[in-house]
Amino acid sequence: MNRIDKLFQQKQNNLLSIYFTAGFPNLNDTLSIVRHLDKAGVDLIEIGFPFSDPLADGPVIQQSSGQAIENGMTLSMLFEQLKDVRRHTQIPLVLMGYMNPVLQFGEKEFFKKCNEIGIDGVILPDMPLDYFECKLQNIVEENDIANILLITPETNSERINQIDNLSRGFLYMVSSNSITGGNKTMDMQTEYFYRIKAMNLKNPTLIGFGIKNKETYENACKYSNGAIIGTAFIEHLKQHGIAKESIQTFIKSIRK
């Protein structure tokens, strides 16, 4: 069974997913960060593969992506770094990035490689739904990869149902109409969250964008199965480094 499916069968509440950019702060930090997050007790890990024009990302993740590219990170190198990752963790792993690197790598090759090394899901925010249905759905299903799609407060109910039907694993609920790291006041837009909850979608949900501390994490968990933290974690890595103790301190500050 796909590890994401298994996770949500075993645990329905207060899940914590952590995002970081592969190749940041340093080129070879990827596996160490994964191992330390595992030891810190997170539920799911999202690994961003860098791209030069990350449209949905705020300045912190953009900077980390740019630094990772300067460091020499590529999709091929990331796969090489992760080739033995399942010796170190059984936590569900998701790759998150943009279509351009996937197209350059080769779509079939990309999803086959994800399957080979034990990646459970993929998030591609700029992937058109019709392109997925026509070109990628069969490839994704053949490789047992969860296709994780995003919804926002502006997504209408008909579109949400379509996204839910084409998604597997969970729905990524963007907390507001902003870039990553935005929504600084964490206006939770409860009307939006209640609307999603009332739709009884087939997929569980995780809320992301603007989740940065214990308060915003716990607030998000009131309206969904859990929350995703990215920008705040990358800022922590930048300021405090990737040591096991540093990462454990960050996770404990979220789940006191």
How does this model look, in words?
- The strands form two sheets. This protein has a six-stranded parallel β-sheet with strand order 5-4-3-2-1-9. The protein has a three-stranded parallel β-sheet with strand order 6-7-8.
- About 3% of the residues have low confidence.
- Helix 2 crosses helix 12.
- The longest helix is centred in the middle third of the chain and has 14 residues.
- The protein has a single domain, classed as Alpha-Beta Barrel (TIM Barrel), CATH 3.20.20.
- By secondary structure, the protein is of the alpha/beta class.
- It is globular.
- The two termini are 31 Å apart.
- The protein has twelve helices and nine strands.
List the helices and strands and how they pair.
Blueprint: H1 3-10, E1 15-21, H2 30-40, E2 44-48, H3 59-71, H4 75-81, E3 93-96, H5 99-105, H6 107-117, E4 121-123, H7 129-142, E5 146-148, E6 150-151, H8 157-166, E7 171-174, H9 190-198, E8 205-208, H10 214-223, E9 226-229, H11 231-240, H12 244-254
Parallel strand pairs: 1-2, 1-9, 2-3, 3-4, 4-5, 6-7, 7-8
Helix pairs in contact: 2-12
Instruction: Compute the number of helices.
Output: 12
CATH class: Alpha Beta
Q: If strands are numbered along the chain, what order do they take across the biggest sheet?
A: 5-4-3-2-1-9
What would CATH call the homologous superfamily? Answer: Aldolase class I
Q: On the 0-100 scale, what is the average pLDDT?
A: 92
The second-level CATH architecture is: Alpha-Beta Barrel
Overall 3D shape: globular
Which structural category do the helix and sheet elements fall into? Answer: alpha/beta
SSE pattern, N- to C-terminal: HEHEHHEHHEHEEHEHEHEHH
How large is the share of residues in beta strands?
A: 5-15%
Q: Radius of gyration from the CA trace?
A: 17 Å
